[in-house]
Amino acid sequence: MIFLTPEAAHLSARVCAALQRPALSHEEPEFAELLHGIRQKLLRAFVPGAESDYTAVIMTGSGSMAVEAALLSSLPHGKRALVINNGVYGEQMASILAIPRLGVAEFKLDWGARPDPERLRLALRQHPEVYAVAMVHHETTTGLINPVKEIAEVVDSQNRVFIVDAVSGLGGEALDIAGPHLYMVAGAAQGGIQGVPGVSFVLVRKGFMERMRGYPKRSWYLYLPHYYENEERGRIPFTPAVQAYCALDEALTELLEEGLANRILRYKKAAAAIRHKMNELGLKPVLPVELHSNGLTAYHLPAGLSYETLHARLKEQGYVIAPGQGPLASKIFRVANMGALSEPDIEGFLSAFQRVLETAAVR
Questions:
Q1: What is the pLDDT of residue 362?
Q2: Per-residue pLDDT for 99 more than 60?
């Protein structure tokens, strides 16, 4: 089965083999070595040249877990966070903050609309209680890439902390973390990194990590300084999914061998092939081309063809696509080209898609 979904990237043979490594106790020195290697590889891949300025905190859980840990750990007493919300995952961050009442009125936009940096500047001036700003990098609701650099400049100019959910962006999209001094960037093993779900992480500026150690502990399990202090000693505070860590280790080795720029280029080429063929077939993308990510494209459903039918007929041929989310659930479908996909994989999917459309037209 070929997965073309943002949640489950297609795995390479090497990553699959890593899942079969001999069992390893997380209490043993061998696990400490594995953990250290993963942390170092993350820094080499995503903050090259600035590894000494950042630390990688690894967690067992989904990307949403890393995002929640980053948000809850980042605020001093009496301070709040502002979320730029233009999709499902921006909405999720706002919901996370709403439970402990740590957010302010959302910076909410239509799904698929990019935020205006100057409007954000005005909002921050009007809300002195805002200490942190949070935004999704790759909003897979629509395949939108948000303007991290431009927003970072505004956040920095207003002396606020910037937190980025890059769960679906790292590995497949360009993201300068060290240049604009992003304070925290949450990621996960799947997607562009091409590991398996179950391991997530937060890349944190070391100076900010030291500040967070004095902030309120709002969760036992999601308190980032607790993980950091343990991982600096080669330990992890809670039982990890060791085999998923082994897969992440191998996926990061593959990423470093391929080179991040080359992987981004591979994703761009795959996305271009998909978009060219879909245009030939008369499919309408949800976003203008200039807003598209490298790793996912959302399309309006063809007339007279439900998502359930489209999904089922493609799955019969060995290909799995993703549905729309929220109010878009019955209106669009999404095709992700993240993962260890070859040109024949993409070509096979496009041929299968064309057959589904032709069959639907005949019926």
A1: 45
A2: yes
Tell me what the mean pLDDT of segment 215-240 comes to: 95
Closest CA to 96 of 109, 86, 87, 83: 83
Cα dihedral 344, 347, 352, 357, rounded to 10, equals 180
CATH of the domain at 137: 3.40.640.10
Q: Are residues 171 and 68 in the same domain?
A: yes
| Contact present, 93 and 85 (Cβ < 8 Å) | yes
Which of 257, 289, 309 delimits the end of a domain?
257
**Angle at which helices 307-316 and 343-362 cross, to 10°:** 120
Burial code (b: 16+ CB inside 10 Å, e: under 16) for 186-209 equals: bbbbbbbbbbbbbbbbbbbbeebb
Q: How many residues does the chain have?
A: 363
What is the DSSP code (8-state) at residue 23? P
On average, the pLDDT of the chain sits at: 95
Higher-confidence position of 8 and 196: 196
C-alpha distance from residue 141 to each of 33, 92, 144, 200, 217 (Å): 37, 12, 8, 20, 31
Range of the domain at 124: 13-257
> What is the rounded average pLDDT of the residues 311-316?
97
Which residues are paired to 205 by β-bridges?
54
The domain that holds 335 is classified in CATH as 3.90.1150.10
103 and 185, same domain (yes or no): yes
Domain boundary among 226, 257, 288: 257
Residues 280 and 312 reside in one and the same domain: yes
Q: pLDDT tens, 43-98? A: 999 999 999 999 999 999 999 999 999 999 999 999 999 999 999 999 999 999 99
Residue 246's CB is within 10 A of a number of other CB atoms, namely: 24
Residues 241 and 191 in one domain: yes
Select from 250, 309, 339, 274 the least CA-distant residue to 2.
Answer: 339
6 assigned to some structural domain: no
